[in-house]
Structures are given as structure tokens and as C-alpha cells.
Design a protein that fits this description.
heterodimer; A: about 270 residues; alpha/beta; six-stranded mixed β-sheet; four-stranded antiparallel β-sheet; 10 helices; B: about 290 residues; mainly alpha; two-stranded antiparallel ribbon; about 0% strand; globular
Chain lengths: ~270, ~290
């Protein structure tokens, strides 16, 4: 359902700092796939999600979503099909708007906004139910400005906004990286619950190998702008962290030395 | 008593301009200097039309439309030509200086013995002074209520999110460039409407009347915010109006204390500097004392 054909992205093209961040990436994601993406810093993971979301244009290649070529669509138009949660908890919500106002922004991802009221009895009721399901007590604070919430609470709300109207594709860019361990578990559980329940095709970048193995049905490892490992189905289910490290070292032909992944191994 | 009346009148009529400044500075987080040009633009359009015997109410509508076009141009300069917001505003403002002179044909237009909206209101049998206040209360209230309502619609939320977190807005399908242009148009439309009303109120339009509009508008917004805060949109627009009244009252008092009219820009600037730097100074003092 999502196809990347020979996608290339170069930063600072033609300068001394030229950096090929994505090199001829070919990727075929199936409907309902929940893909975890791992790789060391600078491997091109975030850039991959950003070119899919349309944050910046590709230098070469094409991106096809459900048979529609979206390579040239601006970011805000791709938002009709794509839900996103960012690494920075500040990025996914509007801080000086209230919780319910933020949630109401979700409705119009897929439709053209008009002069109808942003909030009404019906959607307030719906938001209350959805917030209650999070189990964070936010359903009683719908008029609170989001700037008063913790990082974890904001990420939970961003996840809710991104998935309220089922997107064709959900992009999670290390959405738990800035959270403390117990909140990480909470947000990951929530992610799994929502993604599986709604059957959303999802790409999730993570630095935590355990979660990368545990969550989803497919695992992709990137290195220096290329996909070096792509493990699916039964192979993925049987994968261990040690095996994964070995596979990476063979595939990328180098030592596994990313500090953050090493830390991820231990917790 | 006269001081109070004058402050209420001016507070309301310039308050519409302050609400315009609130849209760009607070809602959109866009430092728009176009208003120094769109305020006299509104005054020029209204006064030249009235001077030539046109309908003063229609003149106000045209003022607002002219202002919206000015804001739209600043929006295009910023979003299409990618010129920084500050510079885009300065460019439009500077161009408007020439345009305003063209519109008026000379450096000022006097509205003595012409039919302004106040002539019509007086014809209803309302005393002149009360007619002024009535007209301004209605105008400011309509502007406030319409804007409050607009900011609660889906597009209004999109506008607020654009100013608050453009990344988030885009990721939820908001065309942030279009929203910026819309906000700038609305803001400058209100500022020009205020200019058109002020020209009729003071009985003349002058090429220099726009100097310092941004700072005066900002002063009003900040004073209002310090008193009321910005807990909700409705309170924020009300606080801009209240801030405008207090600002005009302080100006009136300063004049009574013997300051010259020409000193007012300096006083206003100092006021805004104090208001804007207070949080920073407070936090520095807190660090020093801990």
C-alpha cells in the first residue's frame, strides 16, 4: 500500500557538506503492516519518515500511497492520509490551546475546514470517552491548556489526534525517546493497542531494540541511507536482541556501536 | 469627566486597531508592521470618499477592504516570496506611504462641513457626544463578537494552531501559508477600519497619522493582558479593548501633566519596553536573590 521507488534525498547538494541521507531506497509496505525501524544515528530513519510525510521534497524517486503518487503533494495535503507523532512532545500539540481544542483539530485532517464550530456537544462527548480510555484522568481537564501537561500526557494526546480519524499510514518518529521509562511503557502499550485495534499501517522508529522486536510484525534496519535488514513474520517473532545485533554487524559490515541502542539493550 | 469621555471614545475606536494587532502578534505570532501603513490607508480611503460626498458607511467598508488587500500583500510577500515577516511588513508599509499620498492627493484631507457617520447619527436626535460613544461601542462590540466567534470555528482553530505550532498545524492538514495570509488580511482590515473611523472622529486624515500604530496597538494588547490575562479568546479580545482604553487614559493624563503631544511616542515606547522586559527582569532578580 505504501511503495517507495528509488527514493534519494541529499542534503546540501553540490556543496562541500553534501550528504546523501537516503540512497535509492526501495520499500514496499503492505496494508496493516506494523513496521519498527531501527538504525544508528544518521542512518536516515527520520529523513525517511519526513520525506514520506512531505516535510521536504525528495531529490529522486517516487512515493506511492494506495496507488496515488504523492511525491509532489505538499505536507498539509498528505496529512489527509498520514497521521504523525513526533519525538519532541512539544511538536504534536498546540500549547496555548486547550485539550479539547487540540483534539478537535483531528477531525479536519481529512476534510476541508469550514465555518462550523470547532467544538460541539457531540465531539466533546466523543473526546471525553477517548480521553477516559487513556486512563490518565485527562477527561476531567478538557479545558486545560496543553502547555500545562507533561511530556507523556502530550504524546498520548498527539497519538489520539493522529489516529482519531483512521489514517492510511501512521508515522511514529521515536515518539517515546523523550519520556521516562514508565511513561515509555505506557505510550508503547497505548500505541500497540490503537494500532492493532484499528489495523493502522504504521512505521515506527525506535532506539529500543526490545520494543523494536516486541512490537509490530516487521522490522527494518537502516544504515547510511539504505535498508540493510528487512525481517518479517515468523522470522521476526523468533528474533532475539543478540541475533539482531549479529545480523546488523554482518549486514552493515561494522561494529554495533551506537550508544543509545546499547542503552536500549540494557533497560 | 471630559478626560474620561475622550479616553472611552478613543479607547474604543483605537481598540478596533488593537484587536487587529492582537490577531497578528498574539494569534499568529507574526510581528506585522503593515499596520503603520494600513491605518492611514483606511483613513485616506474613508476621508477622500467622504470629502467627495460619498456615503460615510460605505467609505468604512471600502477602508476595511483596502486594509485587507494591504495585509494580503504582506502575506504573499512572506509566504510566496519567502521574505521574513518583519521585512514583508516594512515593505508594504513603505509602499503604502506613496499609495496613501496618491489616494488623498495631498498630505492631509479635512472633513469640515462634510457628512460623516456622526452627522447621520446626530440626525437621529442623539446628542453628538453620545452618538460618538454609541457608534464606537457598536463597532467595537460587533468586531469583538465576530472575531471571538470566528476563532471558535474550525478555520479559527486552524488559524490559532498556525500561530501556536505551525508544524502541528501542517501535520493535521492546515495550509499554514493560507492561514497566515488570512490572518494578516483580517488584521489589516480591522486596522484600516479603525483608521477610517478615526478620520471621521477627528475630522481629518493626515499622511503621518499611522506612525507608531504598531507600538500603540501593542501597548494596548500588553496592558490588557497584564490586567486580565489571556485565559480564553473572549477575554483576550476584551482585554485588548480595555488595554486600549487604559492606554488612551494614560496618554490623556500625560498630556495634562504637561508633556507635549510630540513626546507621546517616546512615552509609549518606554511603556512597551517596560512591559515586555518585566518578565525577564523579574526572572533575573529571582536568580540573583536565590
Amino acid at each position: 500500500m505504501l511503495k517507495l521507488k528509488k527514493v534519494t534525498k541529499v542534503f546540501n547538494k553540490g556543496t562541500i557538506n553534501e550528504n546523501v541521507v537516503l540512497r535509492d531506497i526501495n520499500l514496499d509496505i503492505n496494508d496493516g503492516d506494523f513496521v519498527s525501524i531501527i538504525g544508528s544515528n544518521g542512518a536516515g530513519k527520520s529523513t525517511l519518515l519526513n520525506v514520506i510525510a512531505g516535510v521536504f521534497p525528495v531529490d529522486d524517486g517516487s512515493i506511492i500511497l494506495d496507488d496515488q503518487d504523492i511525491t509532489r503533494l505538499p505536507e498539509y495535503e498528505r496529512a489527509k492520509f498520514i497521521g504523525r507523532v513526533f519525538q519532541d512532545p512539544m511538536m504534536g500539540t498546540a500549547p496555548s490551546m486547550t485539550i479539547e481544542e487540540n483534539l478537535s483539530m483531528a477531525c479536519c485532517r481529512t476534510i476541508t475546514r469550514g465555518l462550523r464550530w470547532g467544538l460541539n456537544e457531540k465531539n466533546r462527548k466523543e473526546f471525553k470517552i477517548k480521553l477516559a480510555e487513556l486512563g490518565l484522568g485527562l477527561e476531567n481537564r478538557m479545558n486545560t491548556k496543553v502547555e500545562l501537561l507533561s511530556g507523556g500526557q502530550r504524546q498520548a494526546i498527539t497519538l489520539l489526534i493522529a489516529t482519531m480519524v483512521k489514517p492510511k499510514l501512521l508515522l511514529l518518529d521515536e515518539h517515546t525517546a523523550a519520556l521516562d521509562p514508565s511513561t515509555v511503557r505506557l505510550i508503547n502499550d497505548l500505541t500497540e493497542e490503537i494500532v492493532l485495534q484499528k489495523g493502522i499501517t504504521t512505521l515506527m522508529i525506535t532506539h529500543n531494540m526490545e520494543y523494536a522486536i516486541k512490537m509490530g510484525n516487521r522490522l527494518i534496519m537502516m544504515d547510511r541511507g539504505q535498508v540493510v535488514l528487512d525481517i518479517k513474520g515468523a522470522d521476526k517473532a523468533l528474533l532475539t536482541v543478540d541475533e539482531l545485533v549479529n545480523m546488523f554487524e554482518n549486514a552493515a559490515n561494522k561494529k554495533f556501536d551506537d550508544d543509545r541502542i546499547m542503552l536500549g539493550l540494557r533497560n | 469627566m471630559n478626560l474620561l469621555f475622550t479616553s472611552i471614545e478613543q479607547g474604543l475606536v483605537f481598540g478596533i486597531m488593537a484587536i487587529g494587532v492582537y490577531i497578528t502578534f498574539k494569534v499568529l505570532d507574526f510581528p506585522d508592521l503593515t499596520v503603520d501603513g494600513s491605518f492611514p490607508l483606511g483613513a485616506a480611503v474613508a476621508s477622500i470618499m467622504i470629502f467627495n460626498g460619498g456615503n460615510p458607511f460605505l467609505a468604512l467598508i471600502l477602508s476595511a477592504m483596502a486594509g485587507m488587500i494591504a495585509g494580503y500583500i504582506t502575506g504573499l510577500l512572506n509566504t510566496r516570496a519567502k521574505i521574513s515577516g518583519l521585512l514583508a511588513g516594512i515593505l508594504t508599509m513603505t509602499a503604502l506611504y506613496s499609495i496613501n499620498l496618491r489616494v488623498m492627493g495631498q498630505a492631509n484631507v479635512t472633513l469640515l462641513n462634510t457628512k460623516t457617520i456622526f452627522t447621520y447619527i446626530e440626525a437621529l436626535g442623539i446628542p453628538y457626544r453620545w452618538g460618538l460613544i454609541l457608534a464606537f461601542v457598536i463597532a467595537a462590540a460587533v468586531v469583538k463578537i465576530l472575531l471571538d466567534s470566528f476563532l471558535k470555528t474550525q478555520i479559527g482553530f486552524a488559524l490559532r494552531a498556525t500561530g501556536n505550532n505551525p508544524d502541528m498545524a501542517r501535520s493535521l492538514g492546515v495550509n499554514t501559508d493560507a492561514m497566515k495570509t488570512l490572518g494578516l488580511s483580517m488584521s489589516n482590515g480591522l486596522v484600516a477600519l479603525s483608521g477610517g473611523l478615526v478620520a471621521q472622529y477627528q475630522g481629518f486624515a493626515d499622511i503621518g497619522m499611522g506612525i507608531g500604530t504598531v507600538v500603540a496597538g501593542l501597548a494596548s494588547v500588553i496592558i490588557g493582558e497584564m490586567i486580565i490575562g489571556e485565559r480564553s479568546v473572549g477575554l483576550a479580545t476584551f482585554s485588548a479593548l480595555l488595554g486600549s482604553f487604559i492606554y488612551r487614559l494614560s496618554i490623556g493624563i500625560a498630556l495634562r501633566l504637561g508633556f507635549a503631544t510630540t513626546d507621546l511616542k517616546l512615552l509609549t515606547t518606554v511603556l512597551v519596553i517596560i512591559a515586555l522586559s518585566t518578565p525577564r527582569i523579574r526572572s533575573l532578580l529571582r536568580i540573583a536573590s536565590s
